[in-house]
């Protein structure tokens, strides 16, 4: 089954390029393309795409504000932020608002399709530089281990926050995919969340890593 995608970006040429790039995959279909996100929540509620590609700086309403509105009507859609910004404030604000992933526009041509596959397989998708900034920001004032994470759980949560998928974490730790899935379910339970996006957001907000 094809993956449906909505694109929000005020750069017409970029939107067209994204549509062409995604069409080459043969598995991704753009079902909505918009130059602003003023009605993003209504459009997402009506069409229920699998993926949203959201620019962060648009006229009328920012992408971060749109993510918050989208999350009010749809908790499941995967939202990948596409932006030229690489500062901590924009990154943290986007993830905390409910973004599933974050890619710098300079990496789009080579990273976009893999990023989409990552978020669809339940892994956060972050540019390496973005993931590094998030971890550095969190480590500056890490909170006590109030959720009683084991060392392994904390290690896995850290890898999840770095943008690794379940498969990547399994390979990194030389454990089976199912073992990692079991650990992550325990982490979700302790955090009282239901997805990688919520786990990363909570870890960032509470500086757990």
Structure notes:
- The protein contains 10 helices and 6 strands.
- β4, α4 (88-97) and β5 (101-104) form a beta-alpha-beta unit.
- The model has no long low-confidence stretch (mean pLDDT 85).
- The longest helix has 15 residues, at 177-191.
- It has 209 residues and is α/β, with parallel strands linked by helices.
- It has a 6-stranded parallel sheet with strand order 2-1-3-4-5-6, with helices on both faces.
- It is globular and about 50 Å long.
- The chain has 2 domains: 3-120, Rossmann fold (3-Layer(aba) Sandwich), CATH 3.40.50; 135-205, Winged helix-like DNA-binding domain superfamily/Winged helix DNA-binding domain (Arc Repressor Mutant, subunit A).
- It has helices at residues 12-23, 40-47, 63-73, 88-97, 108-120, 128-139, 151-161, 166-173, 177-191, 196-205; strands spanning 3-8, 28-34, 51-55, 78-83, 101-104, 125-126.
């Amino acid at each position: 089954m094809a993956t449906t995608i909505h694109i929000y970006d005020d750069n017409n040429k970029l939107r067209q390029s994204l549509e062409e790039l995604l069409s080459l995959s043969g598995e991704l279909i753009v079902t909505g393309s918009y130059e602003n996100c003023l009605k993003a929540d209504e459009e997402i509620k009506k069409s229920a795409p699998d993926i949203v590609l959201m620019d962060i700086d648009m006229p009328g309403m920012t992408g971060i504000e749109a993510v918050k509105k989208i999350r009010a009507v749809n908790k499941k859609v995967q939202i990948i932020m596409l932006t030229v910004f690489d500062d901590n404030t924009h990154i943290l604000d986007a993830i905390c608002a409910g973004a599933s992933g974050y890619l710098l526009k300079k990496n789009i041509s080579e990273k976009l399709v893999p990023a989409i596959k990552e978020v669809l397989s339940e892994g956060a998708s972050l540019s390496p530089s973005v993931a590094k900034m998030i971890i550095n920001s969190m480590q500056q004032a890490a909170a006590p281990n109030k959720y009683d994470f084991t060392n392994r759980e904390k290690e896995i949560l850290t890898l999840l926050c770095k943008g690794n998928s379940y498969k990547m974490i399994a390979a990194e730790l030389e454990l089976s995919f199912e073992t990692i899935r079991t650990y992550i379910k325990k982490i979700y339970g302790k955090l009282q969340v239901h997805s990688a996006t919520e786990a990363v957001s909570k870890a960032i907000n509470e500086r757990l890593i």
